[in-house]
Each structure stands twice: as C-alpha cells, then as structure tokens.
Amino acid sequence: MSPATLLALLGVTLTLPLPPALTCQHLTQDAVHPATSLPLYWKAASKLCEDGWGCQDTLILIHNGPQVTVVLTKGCTLAEDQEAHITQHRSGPGLSVISYTHVCRQKDLCNNLTDSLALWTLTSAVAPAPRGVQCPTCLSKDGCQEIGTELPCPTGLTHCYKGVLTLNGGGITTKLSVQGCMAQEGCSLLHGTQKIGSISVSENCNPEDDLMCHSGTMLKVHSNLSQEPTEWTAAGNQTCNAGEICRETLLLIDPGHKQLLVGRKDCASPGVLDSDIISTHLTPPGMLVVSYASVCSSNWCNSANSSSVLLNNTLPQPGIPALGDRKCPVCVEVFGSCSNSKLMTCPVGTTDCYNGYISVSGGEVSIKMHVQGCRTQGSKDSWSISPSIGAFYVNGNFKDQFPQQNEVSPAPYLAWVVGLELFLALLCGGFCLPYSPHFQGFLASADPPQLTS
Known about the structure:
By secondary structure, the chain is mainly β. The chain has four helices and 26 strands.
C-alpha cells in the first residue's frame, strides 16, 4: 500500500503549496493587415502573475486573400499546461483560419512566441480563376461594403461567404465582418469551433443580426454653425448587435456668438420606430438649443452628410439685440464652478439673471457646464429639453440670481465671448484637438501597441 493510499484511508489530506508566481509576456493586439505585410514580428511587455497561474500564447490568423486579420493575446492564465499547437480550422484557398495556442509554467516568460512565421507558411496563395466566380472580399471591424469590393475567386471556389466573427477573451473584444470565397455554402467558417486558446469565438451569418451603421463622434465650433450647413462625416462604421438599429444625433448650442455642434452616429437599442425628430429646446433671448435625432433600420441608413438636416428646418435667429440697463454676472465654466464672474450689459427686456448648470453626456461625451447670464421673465421656466436626445442625455437646472451692481461692467457681450471661449478651450482640452475657426475635432482614444512587419 502506497503512503498516499494509507493517508487517504486515515482521512489525512495533504495540501501542496502552489507553484511560485511566474512572470509572463503580456500583449494584446487585433488588427487587419495587407497580406503583403506578413509575416509579423513583435515585442511584448512582461507581467507578474498570481501564484499558480501559467503563461499563455494565443495567435489567430484569418486570411481572405488580400487581407489578414491578426489576433494575438499573451498573458497570465489559469488554464492547464498545453504544448504548443497549430490548428488549421479552415484551410485555403479562399478564406482560411489558422491558430497557435500554448500554455506553460516551466519558467518565466515561457510564452515566448515572437512572430507569425510558423502560421503564415501554412496559408495558401492561389491565383484566382480568370473567369470564375467573383465575391465581395473584406475583413473589417467597421463593417464591409458589398458594392465595389468584388474579387475573382480561386479555381474551384463557387460560393461567397458573409458573416460576423465575435472574438472575446484574453483582453480581446472584437466583432469582425468577413467576406470572401468558399468551396461550399453555409455558415461554417469555424467548423463549430467555440474556443481557441484564451479566446471564445462564434460566427453569425444571419443578415438581420449584423446591421451595418456609420459610427463616430463629431465636434465643431464656429461662429456661423446656426446659419450655414457644415459637413458631417462619420469616423468609422459599426456592426450592430442583434436587433439594434442605426441612429444619428445632432445637438446645436448657440449662446449668441460662437456655436457648439455635437454629432454622433452609432447603433441604438431596439424598440424605436424609424423616425426623424427636430426639436427646439431653448430660444433667444439667451441661449438657442436645438437638436436632430433619427433612427432607421437598413444598412448604412444613418448617412446624413451635413447639418442641413437640422438647419433646413426653420431655426430662430438669435441676432444681436439692443442693450438695456440691466447687468448680470456672466460665466461659462466646464468641470468647475463660476467663481470670478464678470458683469455684462443685458439685452433690452431682460428682467432677471440666472445661475445654473447644463450637462451633456452619452456618445463618448461627458460635460457639465456652470453657466450664468441674462433672461426675461417669460423665459424663467422655458428649459424644456427632454432628458434623452438621441445618443445624448441633456439636463438643465437654473435659478434666479441677483448681481452685485458694484462690479465693473466690461464692454457689451465681451464677457459672453470670453466665457464661451474659456468653455470651448476647456472642453477641447478634455475631449478633442485644439480648434481653429474651421476646426473639426475628434475624441481622443488610446491606441493599442502596433505590430510591426
């Protein structure tokens, strides 16, 4: 009888210590590359793992001929050790999917794959048939256009594939639109594979579940945005989740000198009927706030290319009214409170001063502005903005404020200009590039480390 068996019979349990913590190579990357740029090489950072964890490599190449999607994750894992293994989930010609997986614990930095060479040598490069079938050919995380992307297929491939691959795990979260040539029809690019190393994978070929929409956030600042149409283009495209629809939203805020125009194109939750809604929330004197929100349910339908969708509907023109004898503190402050307001001479008809906040959030924007200024008695309760305007949530909270008449009054409207420019400077410092009179800013994002060829 072995010692282990004897101890078990006696009810004695031995607890073995966990292996010491390992340091593993750490890197995540998923990007589409021209096929001519492969094989790729990379350098990874290092990361100290928890006790008992191992190191893992997962590399997936998805090849459609002219393009290759490279999905790579290196890091810590609780999975059991696995010898380095290459799997051809689907071999070419045409669409091919190949992976490399490895889990180890024998030493630090044992997940030491440094290139895609071993996988790339297994891919097939076959010349297309001169008069064969042509298929839309695309790999993209922003959706694929079906017109103008057709390429001839290799000999023997007679079917066109269209699907969306979802990859999730190991720090990777992506949806990849795939189009290309196959030998047989059907949604079988992965042959039922659900797990590749640390990444869960799935494919969907139901066209109703992969609605394609334009996507991106736009911000513009100018002195005539409420009078002249301005270009509105999307920064990218988006594959919606099942049941979602396309949406586009424009919000114009005009305090009377320069205007702020915020736009967003994206996918929206289901349950909203196709519609175009133009709303006027505030009118002069004071501040003009108007919005355009549209939802639709066909591919690329959120395609408005200028702010004319808002301006072609009659907008009240604020103009520059005659000045009266009332003075109010004026300020626009972002991410803070108005502490050094200046007095300004208000328009004729002003009866009181206001002090309050305007907040705008959603669509990658989060702003809270402290504002002070002039208004008429009839406009005291005129803030009628719906909490939800398309992609944005907007709220205003105002109350009466009585100015200190002993402050120095600047030139008429100068404080409005200074306050607005301060607001725009702070806003752009947090969300967009510096602006000029014709500036169009885009929200900054942190790019992952790039693979090099």
